[in-house]
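dude i think i finally got it to work??
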Amino acid sequence: EEAAAVENAPLLAEALSDSQALPGSGPYLERPGGTLCIAARHGPREALEYLLARNVSVTPYAVTTAVIAKDEWILDLLLRSGWKIDEPLVLTTPSALALAVEDSALVSWFLERGASPNAQCSLDLTPLSVAVQFSSVPIIPSLFDHGGSVLHGQLLHYAVRRDLPDQADVLDFILSKQPQINHVMYQEHPQSYFSQRMFDLGTPLHEAAEQGKLDVVRKLLESGTHPLIRDSCGRIPLQRAERTGRDSVVAYLGPITASAELPGRQFTEDKETTGWS
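look at this
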């Protein structure tokens, strides 16, 4: 389709007016660039081209709309119009690739255009983090093939959180990348740690124990995790399992914890939560 010409402005204005009258358009109009979002969601493509040709800013809402619709034509247009493919959608949401990780074709579109699997937001959360928790298994190696790294995104924690039948395969794959198995979540990202430490930040073993994932607990211990590391609230993994009533994990972890030697200085020492901070 050709870009909208100036003489088409009345027709396009009418099309936009019709779009704005659609049910559910109100919340979009209240946002910056709301008309662009409506055009991306409902309007003819000429309307979207017309707006972008007149330097209407590309908004996260328009990008999100295009990703959810899996509309590669609109995404390409937004990219040509100044959208930076790795910019966060909102403060605590990474780039648009994070919304696409369950669709292999859309993932390929992003990777072919240079999207980074390691793009962060204000937290150490990346598209690869989301993929490790939710994507189909073949997508995850493809993200590593395009620069994905266990140095970003707390990947082992997200592998523990995965609640799909193939969790063991994903966990083994991430462990093969040699992540820091004994690191508390966000240990290498102080901004994230101090903003989130009131939420029981611990090691992957803390999370597996709390969720009652005995097979994951076993795998982590076999891989060298330490059972006496304390989380940001001062608890060890056994205490997290006891608190949530995970009896099988408590029975397994109890003797191992009792016989373990204390680690050296703990990361959370002098960094534990002080309530809501």
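The mean pLDDT is 88.
im so relieved honestly
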